[in-house]
Amino acid sequence: MNKVNLFQYMVGLSALLVAGSAAYYSVFGLSKLFSGAMFAVVVMAGSLEFAKLVSASFLYRYWTKVNTWLKYYMLIGVVTLVLITSAGIFGFLSNAYQGATIEFEKESTVLLYKEDRLSQLQEDKVFLKQELELAISELPDNYITAKRNLRKDYNLKILKVNNQMLDIKAEIGDLKTALIETGVDVGPAIYLARIFGTDIDTVVKFFIFILIFVFDPMAVSLVIAYNRILEDNAVVSSNSNITTKNKWWEVYGEKKEKILKKEKIEVEDKPEEVVEKPKNKVEIGRGGVAGR
């Protein structure tokens, strides 16, 4: 196997892998989008993916030979199918991202709720203390028992709020630990989101768009490149056959010419011989046999 054939097989294999994976992701994403008719969508999207690659190869090979309307209609169809495939890949990747982060988002939502509840309890505690001081200040100085009872009542309320705050702080700590364990799957996205000062969804969306802009167009380009390699190899093989293989009559003519040249050389190298004339020659005529 020479280097040309090896490179041809590498390009063909890469085209098959990229186009096949793009088709799988697209079909899977579209089937999730139209889950009510999943089997029909899989058959439709799969046939369109195959037709897209065949159409791209056909346009490359017969661009100057087909009708103009057919040519541009197929071109528009290929571009449209590339966009549809990209949309299907976007659906597949976004669904995978949501599946990996659904637990993370759930725990993050609970954490935000607990933190809001903690801040509210802290405000309630401050309000109770201010209310206690105001109530005590309104009582005369000789109302010592009343003040003591007010402090007792408010202290019970403040103690209850403190207990609730302690419970919520413990829950917040557990949630943060769980978030660290759950966020391992989306750790790089979280890190990039912190670097760029944005949320995780924006970072993931950006990378998904980069992937879909490269994925299916690269598959179509590799299919066209494989067609070009096949054409070049066909031209090279046909030229080599023309130069190395002669027709049967050409071969016969060359052999005949070599034989004649060989006989001529042998005659030239052979010494001249004296040819003696025979003494008696018998001639046969109309009248009979005559001897001379």
Overview of this protein structure:
- It is a single chain.
- This protein has one domain (12-232).
- Helix 2 (38-61) crosses helix 6 (200-244), helix 3 packs antiparallel against helix 4 and helix 5 packs across helix 6 (200-244).
- A hairpin with a 4-residue loop joins strand 1 (282-284) and strand 2 (289-291).
- It has a two-stranded antiparallel sheet with strand order 1-2.
- It has helices at 3-33, 38-61, 68-138, 144-182, 187-196, 200-244, 248-269; strands at residues 282-284, 289-291.
- The protein is rod-shaped and about 145 Å long.
- The protein has 7 helices and 2 strands; from the N terminus they run αααααααββ.
- The protein is mainly alpha-helical.
Task: Give a short overview.
With 292 residues, the chain is mostly helical.
Distance between the termini: 80 Å
Helix content: over 70%
Number of helices: 7
Strand order of the largest sheet: 1-2
Which features does this protein show?
rod-shaped, single chain, two-stranded antiparallel sheet, 292 residues
Topology:
Elements: H1 3-33, H2 38-61, H3 68-138, H4 144-182, H5 187-196, H6 200-244, H7 248-269, E1 282-284, E2 289-291
Antiparallel strand pairs: 1-2
